[in-house]
Structure formats: C-alpha cells, structure tokens
Amino acid sequence: MPKTVQKTVHIIGAGISGLSAAVRLAKANYQVHVHEAMQQAGGRCRSYFDAATGLTIDNGNHLLLSGNSAAVGYARSIGTEAGLVGPATAQFPFVDLANDARWTLQLGDGRLPLWVLDDARRVPGTTLRDYLALMPLIWAPTTRLVGDAIRCEGTLYRNLVQPLLLAALNVDPPEGSAGLAGAVVRETLLAGGKACRPLIARDGLSAVLVEPAVELLRNSGANVQFGHELRKLSFADGKIGALDFGGDSIALGPDDAVVLAVPPRPAAMLLPGVKTPGKYRAIVNAHFNYAPPPGQPPLVGVVGGLVEWLFAFPNRLSVTISNGDRLVELPREQLAAEIWREICTLTGIAAELPAWQIVRERRATFEATPEQNALRPGPVTAWNNLVLAGDWTDTGLPATIEGSVRSGNRAADLVQAIGRR
What we know:
Blueprint: E1 8-12, H1 16-27, E2 31-36, E3 47-50, E4 55-58, E5 64-65, H2 69-77, E6 84-85, E7 90-96, E8 101-108, H3 128-132, H4 135-138, H5 146-149, H6 155-169, H7 178-187, E9 198-201, H8 205-219, E10 223-226, E11 232-236, E12 239-244, E13 249-251, E14 257-260, H9 264-270, E15 280-288, E16 299-303, E17 309-313, E18 316-321, H10 332-347, E19 356-366, H11 370-373, E20 386-388, H12 401-419
Parallel strand pairs: 1-2, 1-14, 2-10, 7-16, 14-20
Antiparallel strand pairs: 3-4, 5-9, 6-9, 7-8, 11-12, 12-13, 15-18, 15-19, 16-17, 17-18
C-alpha cells in the first residue's frame, strides 16, 4: 500500500478557537503548527497568578451549560470533561438585591421545557402566558432587535430574560440582535433542563480548557510556538504562499492550509478587504481572596444591583458584570468596595474587604447588535487554503466559548475538505 502523506496546517492563534481547530486536526493525523503571538495560550479564556490576591484567577468568569455540545465535546477530546463541574440538575439560585427576595429556578433534567408548566419551578410571580410571549424571539432574524421582538419589561424579563440575555449578548438586551438571542433561548431554556445544567471550570480555565490541549498537541507531535506573531501573509495564485513572522518566514507547500484564529483587529490588518465587527463592549470581573461560606452555591444570579453573577470557587469569590463600559473609568478601589458590600449582602458574610483584583476587559466581545452581527465574516475566504475561526466570525451565536469551539471545529472540517479536493 502507498504510504499516506501527512498534510500540514498552520494555526495562527492559540485561543480556544485555534486550540479546538488544532486538536481536531491533530486527531485527523495532520501535522499541526500553532503560532501564538503571546507568551501563553487561551486568549481571553485563561488563568494566571495574581499577586494582589495571591491566587490563580481567571481573566474572566465563564459559564458553560451542559447543552453547549461543542465546548463539552472539546473538553472531552482533551480529557478534561470531568473538570467542568456543576449541580446534578439544572437549577439556578437568584437573589433580588432590591428587596432580598430569593428563589431557585428549577429546570429539572428533561429534554423538554416542562418546567414552565409548574408554578413551583417557574420564576415567582410569572405565568405560562409570560413564557409564551417569548415565542417571537425564538425564530427572529438576526436583523431584528430584541426590543422589537418581545416586551422588555415585567417580572419574567427582569428576573430571568434580562440576566440571561445580558450575559450572552454583552449588550443591553433591547438593543441586541433578536436572532442571536433566539439562538441562545433555543439551545437553553427551550431545550429543557437536560441542556441547562451549569458547568464551571472549578480549577480554572487554563487547567481545564487550555493547558491540557497544548499538552495533547505536543504529545501528538504538533509544534506549539509562543511569542510567534504573524506579521504578514503573502498571496499568490489565489492562495496563501508564505507566513512572515518578522524574524522568520515559512513558505507553504501546495497542499498546506492555514487557519487564522486571531482577534478581529489583527485579522483585518492581515487580510485586505475582510470585514469584521468594529464595536465592542466591556466586561468587568472582580475576584476576592475569601473562601465561600459553607453551603454557598457555585453560581448565583443577581438582579437589582451592580453584581450580576456570583461565582463561588474553593478559595475565592468572583463576580461578573456584563456590558461594563460604564464601569471602566471608575476608581478600582471604589468598585471593589461596592462589589464586596453586595457580596456580603448576598452571602451573609460580615467581613472587611479582603485582598481583591478587578479585571476590566474593555474589548471583551463585539457588540451583539444587528449592525455589528452583519459584519461578521464566514469561515471561507477568497484564498482557497485559508479559513477563519473565532467567536467574532459568523457562528450563529454571540461571542461565547461555545461559539469559539464551533468556529474552530468548522475551520478544521473545512481544512479537511480542502485536503480532499
């Protein structure tokens, strides 16, 4: 039998999109080369040691759901699915800081949203009619606004829909794309509790989603190079002919492929004429060196305050605030003190402000509005050996880990299709 020639692919960027593409292609027996401009992998989904708190923290708190099939499948492929932990069934404790009302949304573990039929499992004060009023959102086009598809008011909106869509879209929901919001609702609330069990990388994002992927790649013979920033692409005969990294250049063979999995700004600089989203929104995360009190749930949704989601890790409490542009210029000490006061109210803690860190990502995600969504390119480019990946590309979802992994998987599948031509 003739020996099979191993094909070569260059992955530019070692964020979650690039890593998922690289793992998929390495398992398909490609010779994989990963080139990352930074000195570590993970992009916006990574962990690091923080001297201010004396802890290893995540640059952002990321929540996955059991129905995020691509992300869970990626963790499974690198052997870390057990590192995504959560309750046995889909349940979400909520607290309203305005009146200290507390309730738990119980979605169960079925494949149908039968929880909406049960008064005891719904958001308190809501009826089945309130949930049926969300139906126009489910199949709305991406060009429509959420605020034009549903009424953005009332108990259900304030206590469930608004927190869910704010976290997913990272914009005030009424101005967000109804099509993107509908995709989130279809894959979560409409899919029943089976798809909604919350999953958290309890030991850190890097330990669960990043470092094991890099180790797997290197063990499979892939080359993963950090501090290797792509400066220029050379184009010839409808293909990428060479990769210029400044100090060195790599000429591509006739069957080599490239996956460009970098953020939109460098992608626009490298690729003439490619359209990318140009407006972004901030996310603010706060981390406190304080062990959660006994019985503290791993995740609590919060309404009526500054905090939106409270995460309890073994040795710290962390919060996430989406659409955070209004907070990026506030004094850090003031912001930390305000957040800690709310945490004390939420948890019953009576303690002075512990060691803390505020992480403000000014360009955390693209604006998930109809205007910016229309600027997201697909994975196919004008060069037949180059495909795009990233949560900012047209994945059909907002900028999420699930969207990142799907884009990486899709890019890998396209590379394999190129190789079969």
